[in-house]
Amino acid sequence: MRLDGKTIIITGAASGIGQASAAKALAEGARVIGVDLAGDGMPEGVEPILGDVCDDDTIARAVAAAGPVDGLATIAGISNSGVAIDAIDPDTWERIFAVNVTATWRWMIGVLPAMRAQGGGSIVAIASQLAFGGGRNNAAYIASKGAIVSLVKTAAFELAPDTIRVNAVAPGAIDTPMFNRSMARARDPAAARDYSRNRHALKRFGEAGEIANGIVYLLSGEASFTTGSVLTIDGGWRAA
Question: Whole-structure pTM over 0.90, yes or no?
Fold first, then answer.
């Protein structure tokens, strides 16, 4: 029960890594405020806040519902793979950065008053192994995840005096609805899946629960001396 008595806000809690993280946090004793566009898919026991993660109203409602906030995991994210760098629509670029980066920053500053009031907390953002290696036809998503790495490091340094830890998790290719949609956009989806799978040293895709384990660790007191770090859970992608 590593999160016993703690209140955790998780964005993107209705599917994929967010859903798995909400379920894991509940199992570890947390009270979970789950945020997503729709409540379908949120684990039983999650207190749902429905809305766009980019909207100030959504942030305000979640923070008000939580009261004291011990942890925040900003897991909601979007991608638009399969588009060449010179073919990306500017509005699409802006939307990806709005959801993946700007919303992470806005949620971060949204919980600061509550965390400061109780003497500290833990914030976990989602980066990607691609932030360290790049990739084809996915520039907006990859650039947004590189920005998350930089945001986490500077936020950790700035918020350390408040005993607020800020870290990121960098997953490899994880078998989630978003990843499967990304693969489906490829010219040859089967070949794209094989290439991605074999790019990992373990020769398989990860499972959402495996990433949730790392997120819960960073939210818990077990990671009390960890801040400004990027926990890579990528099946050996960076090592291969």
Answer: yes
